[in-house]
Amino acid sequence: MTPSVARLAAQAEPVQESVAVATSGVGKRYGRKWALRDCTLEVPEGRICGLVGANGAGKTTLLKLLVGLARPSTGSVQVLRRPPSDTTAFLRDVGYLAQDVPLYRRWSAADHLAMGANLNPVWDVEATRARLRALDIPLDQRVGTMSGGQRAQVALGLALGKRPRLLLLDEPVAALDPLARREFLATLSAAVADAAGELTVILSSHLVSDLERICDHLIVLAESRTVLAGELDEIVGSHRLLTSAKRDTSSIERQHTVLRTEQTPRQTAVWVRLDGPLHDPSWQNDELSLEEIVLAYLGQRSQPPGVDVSAPSGGQR
Amino acid sequence: MLTLRLTTHSNVPAYVQIVQQVRQALLADVLKPGDQLPTVKDVVSELAINPNTVLKAYRELEREGLVEGRQGVGTFARRRPAGPPPGTQAALTRSLAHWVGTARQAGFDDAGMEGLLRTILMAATDEAIA
Question: CA-CA distance, A238 to B25, in Å (whole number)?
């Protein structure tokens, strides 16, 4: 193994990895309503982590807690090994792009870059300009007259310009067409490649197919709780759809975590997370796409009554 | 330079797709020993995929001895994997393309053809074991 690959391999070894974000039992209450509860998760450094969940599931709340725009009602948040705060030292390391792409419409991209240079102790002028030029973004044009894709790229450029170690993006591609979305994600991924393990990204999105391409870590929130969090490869590798002629599912339930069961007069289908090897070859064992897995978790808590649903252990009601 | 592609409509993990494409390019002599593979940044800028996916694929290829990373320079093709010579490869590709044409005319869709191929592969494996 050559030194460069050895170094990269070392970065990918879980044992040597440090954690960019860690939350423990975090809850956030607004008045009587919990926007987020019991949230415990870890995102290793250098990852691109997807955050998915229904509207109102707590995605924005979680991002705000990480950047320090909200304080947890319970539990603790560690970001880059310290609690979020409004100190310069913390904010220098963390970039946050809110949902509505907050730019001054009458300013040009160049104006925004100049402001970035004034406000940030570290500011990567050349790389930021080069990135926007490579995308043919007219630096002198007012942001308000740009396309949605160009505006999003300017906002991403600003967020990357301060060379953050953690970048939080709240539905950055929701309003973009497929081509602009692809370009935005390519810019993001190239920035992560450039940072060689020193930039961690968490982005929320409803577009699971995008997340499947660009993420290597995933968090799924449902009804204010974390229902799934981990490495993407492991998630995809450990979930299966088991089908067979109609039969009892209790043996599967004893050994594995059943997300959803569907009984028709002739067939039994079980969406399952395998907690060990599957011993019974009489089940047809099919892989699930990430989208199917996410839907199984999101649907779990809102099944209409009458459908046979076996909640996983520790189900909360 | 080698162009990599990626489909998310497949259950084959992204990094395996890259490994297979590089291996295939080496077999078909599209990529020759000494040729440089696209850099991680090139690939992710083109495909909008995770950089670790590309690293993982290149590491796997390096473990197989097919490519080598040179620090600060990039990743280079090292040798052709064991497999049929390019001529045989091309002939097999042609006859398979012909078969696909016939099957499509007979009304098979992609899934039907994949199913048929899998059945035949499994039968061939059983025969080999028996």
Answer: 31
Q: Give the integer Cα–Cα distance in Å for A314 and A308.
A: 18
What 3-state class would DSSP assign to A271? strand
Could you tell me the sign of the dihedral formed by the alpha carbons of B10, B13, B14, B20, in that order? negative
From the list B14, B41, B69, which residue is nearest A4 (CB)? B69
- Whether this model's ipTM surpasses 0.95 comes out as no
Whether the CB of A209 is below 8 Å from some CB of chain B: the reply is: yes
Round to whole Å and give the CA distance between B26 and B83. Answer: 10
Distance, in Å, from the CA atom of A203 to the CA atom of A194, rounded to the nearest integer, reads 18
DSSP structural state of residue A300: G
Rounded Cα distance between B31 and B20, Å, is 13
* C-beta of residue A252 within 8 angstroms of C-beta of residue A282: no
Whether the CB-CB separation of A273 and A257 falls below 8 Å is answered with yes
Q: What percent of chain B has pLDDT over 70?
A: 92
Q: What is the mean pLDDT of residues A47-55?
A: 93
Q: Is A284 on the interface with B (CB under 8 A)?
A: no
Look at A13-27, A62-76, A90-104 and tell me which has the smallest mean pLDDT: A13-27
d(CA A4, CA B71): 5
Kindly list the residues from chain A whose CB atom is less than 8 angstroms away from the CB atom of residue B71: 2-4, 7
- Taking CB atoms within 8 Å and a gap of at least 24, the contacts of B18-24 are B18/B43, B18/B53, B18/B54, B18/B57, B18/B58, B19/B57, B19/B60, B19/B61, B22/B57, B22/B61, B22/B66, B22/B67, B22/B77, B23/B61, B23/B66, B23/B81
How far apart, in whole angstroms, are the C-alpha atoms of residue B113 and residue A156? 44
CA B35 remoteness from chain centre: 17
Interface of B with A in 47-66 (CB under 8 A): 47-53, 55-56, 58-59, 62
* Interface probe, candidates A7, A213, A231, A288, chain B, greatest B C-beta count within 10 A: A213
Q: Is A186:B20 a contact under the CB 8 Å cutoff? A: no
If residue A119 lies in a helix (H) or strand (E), which one and from where to where? helix A109-119
Q: Which residue has the tokens 């390096």?
A: B62
Tokens linked to B110: 């992609």
pLDDT at A203: 95
Task: Tally Cβ neighbours within 10 Å of residue A124.
Answer: 18
Which of B116, B114, B90, B10 lies closest to A213, judged by CA? B10
